[in-house]
Amino acid sequence: MTKRHILMADPHGLAEFMKPALAKLNPNLELLAVADGARCITAHAKLCKAKIPPLVTVIPDELDLVNGRQAAITLRTVERTLGVAATAIIYLQSEAGDADESKQWGRAVAIMQGPVDQPKREAMRLVKAIAKVLSQLTGRGRK
Question: What is the pTM (predicted TM-score) of this model?
Answer without folding.
Answer: 0.86
